[in-house]
Amino acid sequence: MEAHVLGFPRIGRGRELKRALEAYWRGESSAEALLHCAETLREQNWRYQYDNGLSLVTVGDFSLYDQMLDTACMLGMVPPRFGTVNGDVDLTTYFHMARGDAQRNIPAMEMTKWFDTNYHYLVPEFSAQTNIQLASRKLLDETHQALALGLRPKPVLIGPITFLSLSKQEDGVNRWEFLPQILDVYCQMIQRLAPLCDWIQIDEPVLCTDLSLEGKAQATTTWQQLKKAAGSCQVLLATYFGRLDEAVPLIAASGCDAIHLDVLRNESHLTEIIQQLPTSMMVSAGIVEGRNVWKNDLRCSRERLDRLRNMIGDERLMIGSTSSLLHVPVDLFQEQQLDPAIKSWLAFAVQKCREVALLAHLLDDGDHEALLRGSDRIQNCRRSDSRVERPLVRQRAAQVCDAMHTRTAYALRRPQQAQWLHLPLLPTTTIGSFPQTRAIRLMRRRYQSGEVSEQVYRTFMQSEIHNAVSEQDVLGLDVLVHGEPERNDMVEYFGQQMDGFCFSEHGWVQSYGSRCVKPPIIYGDVSRPRPITVEWIRYAQSLTDKPIKGMVTGPVTMLCWSFVRDDLPRDVVCRQLALAVRDEVQDLEQAGIQLIQIDEAALREGMPLRKDEAETYLRWAVDCFRLTSAGVADTTQIHSHMCYSDFNTILPWIAAMDADVISIEASRSNMDLLEGFRRLEYPNEIGPGIYDIHSPRVPEVAELIDLIWRALEVVPKEKLWINPDCGLKTRQWPEVRAALRNMVSAAHQVRQRVEQDQQSCRTAD
């Protein structure tokens, strides 16, 4: 029985790819060194899969930045601002597309979230100048590399329907009209791959969403053409992340040899799905969770697979992960500091490969009871551990009432806040973090390892906060932040000081490019035993007469950016988190901090992929935000921040959060996002990001002025804030100073013009 995973983490056990990329970007290593690192990591990933018993190794999922970007390069889709493609897309152009070209002041491609994950993809661009042609041999070369190692490669391509559905188009251009050209390139690549392998995987996760009319109309004939190009090579049409619903008849008519589906998320519809499929079509059962770290319950999974096998027979069954393992850390074996009991409950990517192979083995004839009993013991140990369920936390969550979600109306709060804030028109601020320098990271490591005392650590961090406040004062920002030098990560930092969390040492997961995060693991009921940020924020406020924003991470973002326990509903866990954050917000207010930002960067990300499930989620997610913010006085101004997601579909719910000020990523879309706020007539204040912090380029003042004027076409001047897209922790101080200096200058110039226009109007009257 074939056993495989849909993809594997790229970054390496020791984040080798991150270091190789950043050394190359700094000019400290060559392209050859970077490509050698990539080749070594690909081989290691394939060895993990093969050595743990998988019959196929996935090829083509490895990327130097992003697989959607790789697909755009395969199609020769280089936006005109980056130059003309002659032959294959070169490495310099590839990274300019991803990160922008600072020397020529060319912005990067837009970036947003991959479905409902914290992974970011680059959004392909269609324009009148788009010319589709085969412009990358990457997938073919990597397939040859796997073959040379004696492995069975399974090349993977992002499917044309998903690629087009997730792309953007200029006005007057219909991206679906490019489908014939795209199919021609796909067919060329598949025809070259087919003689080399038994299976080709076509990823179409968009099938687990509400398909567009164009997607529905084009899907079946598209896959039929791909299958025709593959000839005798078998095609696996892969779906993941959710339910298939209306996509099943399209899949059934595709002519593909197998369908991969997430058994866990389609379990209630499994019989209905199987009944609609041709009897010749195989089923790849995604049974090992690809997005969370809990060890598979082998007995429960075997029972699920037995039911599926009884419907279709052994000869039609394959075993796999629910999705790519890109979303989990590489190897649990590295973890030496985790509590042994909790560690026994976990599985990272390497261990999940083994679980897939074990489940294929468990379907063979034979006595496997000893293996199943071992799995049972682990599951029972987790359920019975006294740290998992805490009665006082459950009792407090059960006592939450409607009044705890409600503030005085914004129209009444606003004048009370303005009375003490005394802010100018178009106030300037930042999202929260400032550069995490090498010295900061070193001090944090030394403190955590016990090399320096707590007093030395606190003195150092206070000096960094002092520097950050001084820098902002010199730049002329209106609302300041403390810079967050003490924080390793916006979720991990808070989780480390709450009950119910545990943490890995090496559990890194790619977020975008070289950016990695180390998600906390929520294993038990959550509470906050003591204040977390109050001391640092209060110290920052003592350094200046300007208002300092207190910065906390919101409950939905903590939920989405952690590996969450799977034995409680997500809304129950989120309510526990909200109560913990509520305590922190109230302690900040009592300490004299009257601007508090509750970041909910992941609000859109956590939404289910199907519209019929979205409202239920949004209702409890917004309630959890309001639970954190509604316990403060009317004079306290609550901010929230969101970034890198398609928010237009949930703007009424963003309004329902009732934050006094919301800051939101908008620069990469050239303020297009604000059109939704125009239609909604958003009632509160808003700070659309006016420069992209994920690119090293420094925006020019004229460019920023233009974006501010575009924002003023939508947002009333009294309600517009000026800020970057996101936090600045990943940037270097020289570019931060230059970019913020330009941002403040742009805000001052527009403010002066607006005030002059107001004076002219008063004089005319």
From TrEMBL:
List of residues binding Zn(2+) 1: 641, 643, 665, 726
Entry keywords, A to Z: Amino-acid biosynthesis, Metal-binding, Methionine biosynthesis, Methyltransferase, Repeat, Transferase, Zinc
EC number annotated for this UniProt entry: 2.1.1.14
Pathway recorded for this protein: Amino-acid biosynthesis; L-methionine biosynthesis via de novo pathway; L-methionine from L-homocysteine (MetE route): step 1/1
Domain Cobalamin-independent methionine synthase MetE N-terminal: 3-311
GO molecular function terms attached to this record: 5-methyltetrahydropteroyltriglutamate-homocysteine S-methyltransferase activity; zinc ion binding
Family: Belongs to the vitamin-B12 independent methionine synthase family.
HAMAP family: Meth_synth (MF_00172)
Functional note: Catalyzes the transfer of a methyl group from 5-methyltetrahydrofolate to homocysteine resulting in methionine formation.
Protein name (record): 5-methyltetrahydropteroyltriglutamate--homocysteine methyltransferase
